[in-house]
Amino acid sequence: MANEQSQKTPFDKQLDARGDWEKFKVSGEPEYGEKALSAAEQSGFSNDGKTNLLKNVPELSAAYDKGVSYSATDYAISKKENQLSHDHLDKYGPEIPPTVGKTYEGPIVYGTEKSLYQAAKVEHNEVLVRHDRKALQSTQTQTLEAANSVRVRYVTPEYAVATPIAKEITGPVKDMGREK
């Protein structure tokens, strides 16, 4: 049974969750409610997108979000060795909060549950910009991983767009296809 559940797609898990939720509403059997919440949470752990099957039921939507949170925490723990300790943060300069309208470029050097820290230059000074994870938006999930160089632009204090900074190509590949 457990192997069968792990082989299901996120949509299948969401469909199961909604079906069990409807059974729970009709029958009142707690077993169906628990199964529905568990399936929604497992789908969230996959984080492949919440469908209307869950969005339209607040309890299932919350269980999906809980799964997403667990996934992020699990991932952060697995990447802990790539992150710097607080003892090493001094080498990046003082910690500063972000400013609306400004763009910060540099690598993500540390992360906590609520914040990401980016090494950047501001007015020719090395600083450590503390970003609230809730404010950061990116279309690519890998953008906000430790060691990635990113460009973060603050639109409002609660909304910032993060984009990866492309690595410069050097050597023969750079000149391919260009006329001399």
Structure keywords:
alpha/beta; 7 strands; 180 residues; 6 helices; 7-stranded mixed beta sheet
- Give the C-alpha Rg: 21 Å
**Which architecture of the largest domain would the CATH scheme give at its second level?**
Beta Barrel
N-to-C CA distance: 64 Å
Tell me, briefly, the overall form: elongated
Helix count? 6
CATH superfamily descriptor of the largest domain: Nucleic acid-binding proteins
Q: Indicate the low-confidence ranges by residue numbers.
A: none
Please state the structural category.
alpha/beta
CATH topology of the largest domain: OB fold (Dihydrolipoamide Acetyltransferase, E2P)
Query: What number of domains?
Result: 2
Biggest β-sheet: strands ordered side by side in the sheet: 1-4-3-2-6-7-5
CATH class of the largest domain: Mainly Beta
> Topology as H/E string?
HHHHHEEEEEEEH
**What integer is the average pLDDT?**
80
The tally of strands reads 7
Please give the share of residues in helix. Answer: 25-40%
Fraction in beta strands: 15-25%
Strand count, sense and barrel status of the largest sheet are: 7 strands, mixed
